[in-house]
Design goal:
Blueprint (H helix, E strand, L loop, with lengths): L2 H11 L5 H14 L4 H11 L3 H8 L3 H8 L8 H10 L10
Helix pairs in contact: 1-2, 4-5, 4-6
């Protein structure tokens, strides 16, 4: 899947937002398409927690975390990103670096 397709898919699932949030979401989506998998995995391992524990902390399915870390999760919502960032005690921007 190309970065452009991933970005489009991201916007399909993104919630309604303000203009300011739209700009932030676009920026995040553009960078997200590059590969959040390594960052989520790195932050999770730095905390010393399993994928299952991160899933519980973020209130998402274990498969969501597995797929994100494998680079197979193309339909992430901003809400899912927020939950994972909070569970990792990291700003959402850190997930896309």
């Amino acid at each position: 899947m190309t970065n452009e397709n991933q970005t489009k898919k991201f916007f399909i699932y993104a919630r309604k937002s303000t203009d300011s949030e739209d700009r932030q979401i676009r920026s995040i989506a553009d960078q997200l398409a590059d590969n959040p998998a390594k960052t989520v995995k790195r932050l999770r391992e730095k905390m010393g927690i399993s994928q299952e524990k991160l899933a519980r902390l973020a209130d998402v399915s274990n498969n969501t975390i597995i797929n994100i870390e494998a680079g197979k999760q193309g339909n992430l919502t901003i809400e899912t990103l927020k939950k994972i960032a909070k569970a990792l005690n990291a700003p959402i921007e850190d997930l896309i670096k």
